[in-house]
């Protein structure tokens, strides 16, 4: 994240107090580990070497049990703080990710697969748990406990201290080598998971279509291929983990064996150390290496978590740049007085030599300089694939032009805050999205304010939806959308119109809202459209002649180029392509 701290650094900064507590508990844990070893060595020395009675060491054993209890409590405390850190970090990251999605621009929001975004917001964030709950506590412990153990060992027997000091670096060195490979594999795993999630969600959404066209088996094979890719990536990480564990265990056993051999030689052959010293060191050595070994395991899981966090970070970078741009636009709006509430509504829309491409060497949309007047009813027409919907997306602000400007009453649309612009506009697509909820809730989503039931019912009535609500068992409280009552194409369009009636926008955009509907339903919707358009600028992607011929202005698109504009009678005389399209409609009975 250029110019910013990383996501991990941000979370660590938020949890400085917990990190300080972890450091204090780890320091106490190191003292408890050494104290336990000293007391246990004293107890064994007095009972088995000096032959003292058990009753004479009761106090010593009591102190040993107390130290062991304190050590257990400190270890538990470290674990609990790690879990709390993980829970807080996951909550913060998921909240930040969702906030970025909410405040991202529309072009950024519609980019990418929904399944991939869900996978990152859920699975990748959950995978970050290990970094905060295991990796960080172990790293703090390993920075304190081995140091104190080494100090004690050096004071007791310098040779053992040198052996421990020389062999210990092999463990972190191997951890680093394995960790780097794990991080790369982890990023690969989450790329595979995102692909699998997107493929699976697309298949579920389009299952009926796949069955109708006999492609269900083919899609099943595609899901299986994607699933196998994710499995292979996961297994490669596990392979590294098992290899890592085996090598760590080998290094630890050899290191402990070398120290034990040296102590045996000094104790039995050279008799240069006492049993108490040798036994104390033998108690501390496994603690020393086991801590490194456990840290190695935590390091592996931590690097896996870092791969997941990296995917979250990448997604936040993609949306954050857009949201930062929006913030700058809003700041510019405040300083430049370019606010929508200072502009006369309904607006005029100006297209100043717009150019747009989805991808290099792909379809290009071009327009000359043209103005849509205030309160006009404008139709965009042309053959399928000529760029009508793309032009509507550009006017709506769902896409940004590569060059040229879109103007609102002579002001650049980029000067207005996106949220403020969408408050004044309604965009009704061919297939409005119906959310899982009641009919009333789906209508009320059309406005950002609290609305009464009376307002909802009035909007439904104006959109021709009242008869449907009266037929339903629970009226406006009937569940619709996924898991509820299905709605026909005409009913979905009326619901979308009810949202617009509730909102009362100044700019209304329609993308062939009546396509595929029977003539009777289309006439009813057209009547509602005309009522809604009073006092608003309306731009419609149209296909029916009776809709086109009454428009104040008609924009004719041909292969991505706005080749002409004017009223119906004018275009019939001046634009052969338009006249040909109208003739085809008349011959086909679509007039």
UniProtKB/TrEMBL annotation:
Q: What's the short name of a Pfam family annotated to this entry?
A: ABC_tran
Principal localisation: membrane
List all membrane-crossing ranges: 20-41, 53-74, 139-156, 162-180, 237-261, 267-285
The record gives the membrane topology as: Multi-pass membrane protein
Biological process GO terms, please?
Answer: cysteine transport
Compartments (UniProt record): Cell membrane
Q: Domain ABC transmembrane type-1: where?
A: 20-304
**Highest taxon, organism lineage:** Bacteria
Write out the GO cellular component annotations: plasma membrane
Cite the InterPro entries for this sequence: AAA+_ATPase (IPR003593), ABC1_TM_dom (IPR011527), ABC1_TM_sf (IPR036640), ABC_transporter-like_ATP-bd (IPR003439), ABC_transporter-like_CS (IPR017871), ABC_transptr_CydD (IPR014216), P-loop_NTPase (IPR027417), Type_1_exporter (IPR039421)
**Keyword tags:** ATP-binding, Cell membrane, Hydrolase, Membrane, Nucleotide-binding, Protease, Thiol protease, Transmembrane, Transmembrane helix, Transport
List each copy of the ABC transporter domain by range: 349-584
Q: Which Gene3D superfamilies match?
A: ABC transporter type 1, transmembrane domain, P-loop containing nucleotide triphosphate hydrolases
Q: Which GO terms describe its molecular function?
A: ABC-type transporter activity; ATP binding; ATP hydrolysis activity; cysteine-type peptidase activity
The protein's name is Thiol reductant ABC exporter subunit CydD
Query: In the record, what lineage is assigned to the organism producing the protein?
Result: Bacteria, Bacillati, Bacillota, Bacilli, Bacillales
Q: Which gene encodes it?
A: cydD
């Amino acid at each position: 994240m250029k110019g910013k701290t990383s996501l991990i650094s941000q979370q660590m900064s938020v949890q400085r107090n917990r990190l300080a507590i972890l450091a204090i508990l780890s320091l106490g844990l190191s003292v408890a580990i050494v104290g336990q070893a000293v007391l246990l060595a004293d107890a064994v020395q007095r009972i088995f070497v000096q032959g003292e009675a058990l009753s004479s060491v009761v106090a010593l054993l009591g102190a040993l049990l107390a130290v062991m209890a304190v050590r257990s409590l400190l270890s538990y405390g470290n674990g609990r703080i790690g879990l709390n850190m993980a829970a807080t970090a996951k909550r913060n990251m998921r909240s930040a990710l969702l906030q970025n999605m909410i405040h991202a621009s529309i072009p950024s929001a519609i980019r990418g697969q929904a399944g991939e975004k869900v996978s990152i917001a859920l699975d990748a964030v959950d995978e970050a748990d290990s970094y905060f709950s295991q990796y960080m506590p172990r790293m703090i412990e390993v920075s304190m406990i081995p140091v104190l153990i080494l100090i004690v060992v050096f004071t007791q027997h310098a040779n053992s201290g040198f052996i421990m000091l020389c062999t210990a670096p092999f463990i972190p060195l191997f951890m680093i080598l394995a960790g780097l490979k794990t991080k790369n594999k982890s990023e690969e795993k989450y790329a595979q998971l995102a692909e699998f999630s997107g493929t699976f969600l697309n298949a579920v959404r389009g299952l009926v279509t796949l069955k109708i066209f006999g492609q269900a088996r083919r899609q099943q094979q595609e899901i299986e291929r994607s699933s196998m890719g994710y499995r292979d990536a996961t297994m490669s990480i596990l392979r590294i983990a098992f290899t890592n564990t085996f090598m760590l265990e080998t290094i630890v056993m050899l290191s402990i064996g070398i120290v034990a051999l040296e102590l045996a030689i000094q104790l039995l052959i050279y008799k240069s150390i006492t049993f108490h010293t040798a036994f104390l060191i033998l108690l501390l050595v496994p603690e020393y290496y086991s801590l490194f070994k456990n840290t190695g395991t935590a390091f592996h899981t931590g690097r896996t978590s870092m791969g997941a966090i990296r995917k979250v970070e990448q997604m936040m970078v993609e949306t954050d740049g857009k949201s930062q741009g929006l913030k700058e636009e809003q700041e510019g709006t405040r300083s430049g007085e370019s606010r929508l509430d200072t502009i006369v509504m309904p607006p005029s829309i100006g297209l100043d030599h717009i150019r747009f491409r989805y991808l290099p060497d792909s379809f290009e949309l071009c327009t000359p300089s043209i103005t849509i007047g205030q309160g006009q009813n404008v139709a965009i027409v042309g053959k399928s694939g000529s760029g009508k919907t793309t032009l509507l997306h550009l006017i709506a602000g769902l896409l940004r032009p590569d060059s040229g400007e879109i103007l609102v009453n002579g002001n650049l649309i980029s000067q207005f805050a996106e949220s403020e612009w969408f408050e004044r506009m309604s965009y009704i697509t061919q297939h409005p999205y119906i959310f899982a909820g009641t009919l009333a809730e789906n209508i009320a989503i059309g406005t950002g304010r609290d609305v009464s039931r009376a307002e909802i019912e009035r909007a439904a009535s104006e959109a021709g939806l009242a008869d449907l609500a009266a037929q339903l068992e629970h009226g406006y409280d009937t569940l619709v959308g996924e898991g509820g009552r299905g709605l026909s194409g005409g009913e979905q369009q009326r619901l979308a119109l009810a949202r617009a009636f509730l909102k009362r926008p100044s700019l209304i955009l329609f993308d062939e809202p009546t396509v595929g509907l029977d003539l009777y339903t289309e006439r009813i919707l057209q009547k509602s459209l005309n009522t809604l358009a009073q006092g608003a600028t309306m731009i419609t992607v149209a296909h029916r002649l009776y809709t086109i011929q009454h428009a104040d202005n008609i924009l004719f698109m041909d292969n991505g180029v706005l080749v002409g504009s004017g009223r119906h009678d004018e275009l019939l005389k001046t634009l052969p392509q338009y006249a040909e399209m109208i003739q085809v409609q008349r011959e086909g009975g679509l007039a």
